[in-house]
Every structure is written in C-alpha cells, then in structure tokens.
Amino acid sequence: MTQTLTGTPVVGGVAYGPALWPGVRPDYSAEALGSTSEVPEDRRADEVERFARAAAVVAARLRDRASQNTGAAAEVLAATAALAEDRGWVGAATKLVEKGVSAPAAAAAATEQFAAVFSRMGGLMAERVTDLNDVRDRVVAELLGLPEPGVPTPDVPSVLLADDLAPADTAGLDPATTIALVTRLGGPTSHTAIIARQLGIPCVVAVPGLGAIDVGTPVLVDGTAGEVVVAPDAAEAQERVTAHRRRAARIAGWTGPGRTADGVEVAVLANVADGASARAATAHPVEGVGLFRTELAFLGRADEPSVDDQAAIYREVFDAFAGRKVVVRTLDAGSDKPLRFVDHPDEANPALGVRGDRIALAHPEVRERQLDAIAQAARETGSRPWVMAPMIASPAEAAAFAARVRARDLVAGVMVEVPAAAILAPAILAEVDFVSIGTNDLTQYTMAADRMSADLSALTDPWQPAVLHLVAAVAKAGRALGKPVGVCGEAAADPALACVLVGLGVTSLSSAPAASAAVGAALGEVTLTACENAAAAALATTDPAAARAAAAAVLGSEPEGVRSAG
Ligand code: PEP
Ligand code: MG
C-alpha cells in the first residue's frame, strides 16, 4: 500500500528506486563485548595495545579513503579519522582497559561518555554523535574480527535509508548507484546533508517511520518537498522523475536573458551585498544587480566609512557588472540591520521606527556622503547606477530623495515596502524614475507580522493575496506612467510566484543569484497571457495556499515548487 512520509527537505531533486539499509552494526551485548568478566591484570597491557592498534588501523583506513576523495567527502573522512585518534576519547577508553574492562567494552563506554557531553552541548556538536558512534562501530568491529560496518555497494541504483549516516559511510558513495539519501534522524547541517549536497542527490532527513520500510521496497524521494513515498504507483513515480529531469535540464541550460515564452522581456537580476558577492553573482545567468544592500557591507563598522572607503566598495560592484544595470540601495539601517555608526534611538518598535531612509531625518549628512560616494564610484567606473531609498512611506519623502540623487546626475528610485507607498503608487512614481517592491517588508507591514517570527511564517508568506493586490496596484501605476516596477524581495526567487508577479505587470525580478536560473527557466515556459491569467486567478483567492493552487492550475505543474537543489 502506498504511504507518504515527510521530513526535512535538504537537497532538492526526485529519485525512485529500491530501499537499501546499511550493513549491521556490531552486537553490543555484554557477551559480544567480552565485558562479563574482568581482564586479568597481567593481560591488561596487551589489551591496551590491542585497543590502540585497532583505533590506529581504523584511523589509517579512513585517512587513506580521505586521500582518494576530494572536497567535502575528503574533509569529512579526515575529520572522522581524527576522531578515531582523539586523545580524549582514546585516553578515556585506555583508562578503562587499564582498570580491567575489555577493549571493545571500553570503546563503547568511552563513546557513551563523550556522546552524552556532545548531546548536552546541542547544535552542531550533537550532530557529531553519529560520527563518534561510527568510529566506535569500526573500532569494535576491528577488535572483534568482524567485517567493516557500513554501506554495501548496491547492484542496482538504490535509495539509501538509515537512522543516521556516518560520514565515513556517505563519503565513499557513488551517485550512480546511491540515488537518494533518507535518514530518520539528523538535521540540515549533518554530514549526511553535506555529502548529499556534494553528490547532488536528493536528500530528506528527520523522517519518522522510516524503520518500517523493508530492503527492496520501491520508494520515491522528493528532496524538494521533503517527501518519501513508499511503494508508489511505478508509472506515476517514473513520470515524476522524468518531469524533474526535464525541469533540471532546462534550469541547468538556461543562460538568459529573461523573457517569457512569447518574448516579453523581464530582466532577471541579482541581490548582492558587496564586491565579493557581486563577483560571485556573475557566475549566474543574471543581467545585472537589482538590489545592492549597501548596509550589509558596513554592518561590522563602529565608525562611518569615509566617502573614499565607500566609493571603493561601490566601485567593486560596478566593475563586476560593468556595462550592466546596477541598482544601489542607500543604507537600510535599523530594525533587523542596526548600524553601529548610526546612533539608533531606543525604540519600542524598531521595525516601525527610525530605519531605512528615515535615518536622514536626524543624519542627513550620512545620506549625503553616501550619495557622494556612489556618484564618485560611478564617475570612476563610467557607470550610471540607479539609486533607490528603502522604507519610503510618502510621495514627499520620495521627492526629497529623488532631488538629492538627481543633483548628482544619477537615476532616482525608491523601494515600495510600506503599504502606504503602494496605495499612493501613482503619486510616488510621479516623483521618481523607477520603483522596486521589497516584498519581504511589504508583506511584514501588510500582514502586521514580524518577518523574523517563525511562528508567524504563514502570515509572512509572500503569496498572501493582500500583498499581491498591493503589487498589482504598484505595477498598474508603473504601466500608466511607463516607468519600471521591479521586485527585489524573496518573492522574486519563487519561480511560480515570479510568473504571477510578471502577470501583475512587474518588469524585473531580483533575488539571490542561485535562484536566477530556475526563475528564468520557468518564465521562458509560459506566455505573458498565461502569467496574467495566473495572476488574476491568484488575486481572486483569499489565502496563500489557494493563491498557489490557483496559479499552478493556470501555469501547469512545470514551474510549481521549483527550488534550486542544495
Ligand atoms: C524587502 O524588504 O523585500 C527587501 C528587499 O529589503 P530587505 O530584505 O533588505 O529588508
Ligand atoms: Mg526591506
């Protein structure tokens, strides 16, 4: 009977194959470990020697495998080898052997002591308990003359299931035969996840109920949705795998520029934070920078950077995208991004306080110096950046900002992140050359729900129809005035939502560069009319799930839920 289990999605992708479980771990009964009787005093030195040799053999074997691997696999194997030689662990086991405990039982007891400490520390340390248990299993198997525990090499491409996979198990895996990883335990930062990412195979962790799946049972793993379908309909499962492969190939092959299937241009841009992230973004198929979050380049600074210092950083970004569009946002200081050199007043509600462009109320000179630096970098690189202000709430604020930008012969715009700005979009747009909608804050302020609150994530969903209505109003105003309306919040990273935004009239999409290919490929699959129909369908709903479903029904399943793997 088909059954669907769910867990934490770690690496996207879809795979279908028979289940495989790793080899049996050593028997830890007192009899098997030889802990029912004390080691006589005259044999304890030999037993200490036996333990030391077994630990050294295991460490050498792992180091050897590390040298045959590269990247994360090599690092993981080397780290596990180091655990087998860890002075604390080896010392604790040795002390027990010196007191008469058998070497295998001492390895088990020392591991228990250390695992308890790691678990108490929580987080990353707790996730290392699996590594330690793996070292114990290998050393005990060596001491008992058993075959090395771990993952067998499957004869057919298989889905590897486990309670948790030890790094040494996963590091040697071949993605041709191990096509997905699913574990009952583990978190998104566990070694299983790291290795799955490197191998590029779908991975889901923390899946309850996994133990009931027998070896050989066919399973479908959807690493994007975090789903494990046990004994699915074979034809349907194959179809999901094929559809995913088609989609992945299209994403991998998408090189831009952004346009719909019927050729309507929609620039696909990158969000960056400094020179390094801008240079990294050029490896993706982006046409420019839609949001340069300048405050992120200065978060650690106690003093305001000089105009020259600032210009040097802006130059790096302009150089990385020479000849291409770059939208610079002036400092969005305050609330979730406090800057030490702008003395933020003590506020009861910082998200509703003196943040973003409002810092110019008390410190107009900070904004002036930043605009001077942007203009200087533009002169030095021969670029003409677009410059926008964050957190604009009124046409008067937009006009005041635009005047300062135009005085430096730069292109002036503002972000639409406050519902008031969306409602008065025609008046705001009349003052500037372009706007960019920050859907992260626009959603937060529309829904009166803190974007940082995990408890309120259903409210801060950018598919909220109320938010889509505000985007529609801004895009309509932009169209009427013939001025660009971009989106630079996380909404622009969701391929299906990106199609809806374009249908609402948005003219460019900017997001994390890694999302660009999936967004561009999805857009290339649909016509503008399909986008408009999907937008109308989403606007007719009253909750995010219904909006998603309505858009998917129009767009087809192709762009639905596409997320970048890893
Ligand atoms: C936004 O609010 O959507 C946005 C792009 O700005 P930030 O995430 O930096 O607040
Ligand atoms: Mg914002």
From TrEMBL:
Q: One Pfam family from the UniProt entry?
A: PEP-utilizers
Question: What are the protein's GO molecular function terms?
Answer: kinase activity; metal ion binding; phosphoenolpyruvate-protein phosphotransferase activity
Q: Where is the PEP-utilising enzyme mobile domain?
A: 157-226
**InterPro entries recorded for this chain?**
PEP-util_enz_mobile_dom (IPR008279), PEP-utilizing_PTS_enzyme (IPR050499), PEP_util_AS (IPR018274), PEP_util_C (IPR000121), PEP_util_CS (IPR023151), Phosphohistidine_dom_sf (IPR036637), PTS_EI (IPR024692), PTS_EIN (IPR008731)
Protein residues bound to Mg(2+): 417, 441
Q: Which cofactors does the annotated protein need, by name?
A: Mg(2+)
Q: Where is the Phosphotransferase system enzyme I N-terminal domain?
A: 6-128
Entry annotated with the keyword tRNA-binding: no
Any one GO CC term of this protein is:
cytoplasm
Q: Which reaction does it catalyse?
A: L-histidyl-[protein] + phosphoenolpyruvate = N(pros)-phospho-L-histidyl-[protein] + pyruvate
Which SUPFAM superfamilies does the record match to this protein? Enzyme I of the PEP:sugar phosphotransferase system HPr-binding (sub)domain (SSF47831), Phosphoenolpyruvate/pyruvate domain (SSF51621), Phosphohistidine domain (SSF52009)
Q: Answer whether the UniProt record assigns the keyword Lipoprotein to this protein.
A: no
One of the protein's GO biological processes:
phosphoenolpyruvate-dependent sugar phosphotransferase system
> What residues bind phosphoenolpyruvate, as annotated?
293, 329, 440-441, 451
Q: Where in the cell is it found?
A: Cytoplasm
Q: Which residues form the PEP-utilising enzyme C-terminal domain?
A: 258-519
Per the record, the similarity remark reads: Belongs to the PEP-utilizing enzyme family.
Q: PANTHER family given for it?
A: PHOSPHOENOLPYRUVATE-PROTEIN PHOSPHOTRANSFERASE
Q: Tell me what this protein is called.
A: Phosphoenolpyruvate-protein phosphotransferase
Q: Gene behind this chain?
A: ptsI
